[in-house]
Amino acid sequence: MYRVNQRVTCLPHPPASGELTLSGGGGHVSLIVLLGLSILVPHSFPVRMRSLLKVPMWIGVLAACLVAGPVLGQDVAYDYVVAKDGSGDYASIQAAIDGAKSFPPERITIFVKNGVYREKVTVHAWNPRITLIGESKEKTIITHDDHFDKIDRGRNSTFFTYTLMVQGNDFRARNLTVKNSAGPVGQALALRVEGDRVVFENCRFLGHQDTIYVAGEGHRQYFKDCYIEGTTDFIFGQATAVFEDCRIHSTDDSYITAASTPESEPFGLVFLDCRLTAAPEVEQVYLGRPWRKHARTVFIRTEMGAHIRSEGWDNWAKPEAKKTTFYAEYANTGPGADRSGRVDWSHELTEAEAERYTKMNIFSAEKTVERSKWYRVSPR
What we know:
The protein is mainly beta. It has eight helices and 31 strands. Among the domains are: 62 residues, no CATH class; 150 residues, Single-stranded right-handed beta-helix, Pectin lyase-like (Pectate Lyase C-like, 3 Solenoid), CATH 2.160.20.
């Protein structure tokens, strides 16, 4: 692994022989390629790199690049490593976050080795610019089992049940599973995210009721290539949140979304090019219902399974919400996308209206060039 201030750069087209130079710790370290057959790795490099000795050159270079980072030609640095077996800087994720500098001038990246981390993790407001990178999405798991009755703090107990809470701005996570393992016992959050300009990429969120709470009036959150599983209102809240290329999986007949969009916000929950799937026994699922009366939720170019109810939307026994909510669809596919039975107070976007739903437009509050592209993710 790469410890504090070590940086490795992989070349997209390494030579068949010669010297492959990797920058690290203020200097350079070289890997010597002999006739395209083997790599000599300095002993000062970590075990994983040294283990590349006497393997075909292309395998060695590929493995080195995979360890260094997810994208060839792109730098990646791990400031801390978390490992349950004691081989890292910390044995718990919370300890690594607590050890990070408050309000850092530059991003702090934490690599989390595979393992089941049974802990309740908080990224505090004084911990902006934190990145968590798991070793693998399926095997790097953060889990906890709080739920409404267990917390027992009155009517707002739901909001204390999170497994992972993100309050710091500019947080990023990749290749992680976040799970609430309480089971079907009522409200139990896997994720509570309150920060602004937050990105989750290639992550899994597992729960039942209230899996993901997107919070913060005017705050913006982006989910890319994620898997989200739940039963009732399992994506809810007042933030402006975009879900792109995500799989949204229902495990009970209930509701997917429950937005509480403030009246002043123009977008709310937006699903772009997603897939709505369900367990085999699930047959009656609504796209959403309004937690608060100005809820806004839109599905665009989304594949909808047969489990989606023909009505599509429910008003949560709030007749006035028919006039104040904005529920819309555009260019969706699949058996659940048939709009012939939709409630008459939902909308089908025109092509011109749908063109407004770009990430640049949805996340346009920041005008500076640096901040305007905060939602960009690594190409795959």
